[in-house]
What we know:
By secondary structure, this protein is an alpha/beta fold. It has helices at residues 10-13, 33-36, 54-66, 88-94, 97-100, 112-129, 141-158, 175-182, 200-206, 229-238, 271-274, 335-371, 392-398, 402-411, 439-453, 457-460, 476-479; strands at residues 133-135, 165-169, 186-190, 211-217, 242-246, 266-268, 289-291, 303-308, 314-319, 387-390, 418-419, 428-431. The protein is 36% helix and 11% strand.
Amino acid sequence: MRNTEATRMLFELHSPGRRAALLPACDVPPTPVAALLPGDAVAESAPPLPELSEPDVIRHFINLSTRNMSVDTHFYPLGSCTMKYNPKRNERLASLPGLVDLHPQQPAEQCQGMLELLYEMQQMLGEIAGLPGVSLQPAAGAQGEFTALLVASAYFRSRGEQRTRVLFPASAHGTNPASAALAGFECVQLKGTAGGFVDLDELQAQLDDRTAVFMVTNPNTLGMFERDLPEIARRVHAAGGLVYIDGANMNAICGITRPGDFGGDMMHYNVHKTFTGPHGAGGPGSGPIAVRDFLAPFLPGPVVERTTGREGAAVYWLAQPEHSIGRVRSFFGNVGILVRGYCYLRTLGPQGVREMSENAVLNANYLLARLKDVLPVPQGDRCLHEFVASAQKLKETRGITAMDIAKRLLDFGFHAPTVYFPLVVPEALMIEPTETESRETLDAFSDAIHQIVAEAPESLQRAPFSTPVSRPDDVRAARQPVFQWTPT
Ligand SMILES: *Cc1c(COP(=O)(O)O)cnc(C)c1O
């Protein structure tokens, strides 16, 4: 068995005639495929798929999986992504047969338990947001943004208003302008203050009757709370626009303050970030949105409603909001992730959710304090759940870049922080430890960074040394993809 070859592709492990399943000889006369299907549906030759045994396949994938980093194997301080530990009890609960064996097209009477769960999830998310109208449908944060912008469009259309522009600060996540453009809006980027906050004068200068939505992440992508948000919201509202809060950073503020209380009209959650849906490496996401009551009639449908039936028992049913924009995803969204998020929220309870955020902020501030002597943090000495350090000085004085540090961290058994985002900080390292890390882990990470920045730049530029691949070309796979394989 060629188990030393885990870095080779399955196509390269191909061996003609090798099979995973060996079937007994057919004991009825075979019918050619061409006799069963119309001629143009039958390929002239078999597709060039690799021929492999079952152990070939299993060892290939298991070996590959051990060459990756995950929240279960490594500290993963990937800023903005909230890579917290996902408690295993949520996995166990989400795989209960009564939940996984439900079919989404079963009549509502047969899935009252699931509908109750989804209803309560709507209620909890509405409560945490301070925005009562909730749709669970969007499959990720980016789709939540897109959906909320369609809701805003429908709202303005219903009022006969033609508002064409979406404004956002330069520190915005790339999905914000992408969603706005996809929803048919013109994107206007605001530069912001030197400290990375929204500049009120600049905002004011852009606000007019073309303004549909102002999108802002709060806490922002520098890990700082936009303190002027109530005033910002007042001005956007005075111009007739809506305020969208990108809720990807909710891990900093849950149970402490609410987007609806500081001026937001709409927001999305990333259940897979804040409420421990497993993510990274393409796991399913969940991006519910919450909106003010006057926007709720435009939400995607169906939403789950509750009434009281005979003998006072609750009955759950599916309702279509009056002016619904329609579906944005099949059925009720990524229910498996919603169930995990539900278990997480019910496990923690209101006080626990608040402590989650307080500890996330505490951990980030601890790490900031331990790192700032070697990696300055331009925004200052305090942060919320994450902070953005800069390797600019190290680059100027010693030729060490953010990328060098990120790559070398892999040798120490740490996943790299987010690098070169947000764009407003040069040589950015965006570090988000999350609340699930111990002080020992944070100390070890900090020690590793101190050791790395003391190393010789010529050596760092060749790091990592312990990974199967060291420094692949960052963009070649995207720019010159190779899809073809020719069997040998
Ligand atoms: C992750 C993230 C998004 C996008 O969310 P997805 O669930 O990945 O689509 C948007 N904004 C910010 C600030 C984020 O961190």
